[in-house]
Amino acid sequence: MKKLMISLTLLMGCIAQAADFSCKIRTGDVGAVVGHGSKPDDALSDARFKCGERRADAFKAIRHADVDEERMSDFIDSCINLSCDR
């Protein structure tokens, strides 16, 4: 019985970790971005951060220059008002 309880506990832990949320946001300039997280808010935050990273990558490709910390913050802030597709 004890082994069964341990097995069930481990199984439930694996299932809980597999319950991953995703959030897809669409932007006009860098396309669709998908974020993942253990909670819906985490997935949205991840998608917004990835949006900022994509904008930074586009900046680097066009300007052939690195993105400083302040500009990276601006790129992430520009994605703050985006929300998940329904």
Write down the overall geometry: elongated
Domain module tally: 1
Unreliable residue runs: 1-16
H/E topology pattern: HEEHH
Distance between the first and last residues' Cα: 44 Å
DSSP summary: helix tally? 3
Biggest β-sheet, characterized? 2 strands, antiparallel
Using DSSP, what is the number of strands? Answer: 2
DSSP strand content: 15-25%
Name the strands of the widest sheet in spatial order.
Answer: 1-2
Q: What class do helices, strands and sheet pairing give?
A: alpha+beta
Rg, Cα atoms, Å = 18 Å
| Mean pLDDT across all amino acids | 83
Oligomerization? single chain
Q: Residue share in helices?
A: 55-70%
Give structural notes.
- The chain has 86 residues and is of the alpha+beta class.
- The chain has one domain (21-86).
- The protein has three helices and two strands.
- The chain is elongated.
Secondary-structure topology with pairs:
Layout: H1 2-18, E1 21-27, E2 31-37, H2 40-63, H3 69-77
Antiparallel strand pairs: 1-2
Helix pairs in contact: 2-3
Considering the chains and any ligands shown, give keywords for the structure.
single chain; 86 residues; alpha+beta; 3 helices
Q: What is shown here, in short?
A:
The chain is an alpha+beta fold and 86 residues long. The chain contains 3 helices and 2 strands.
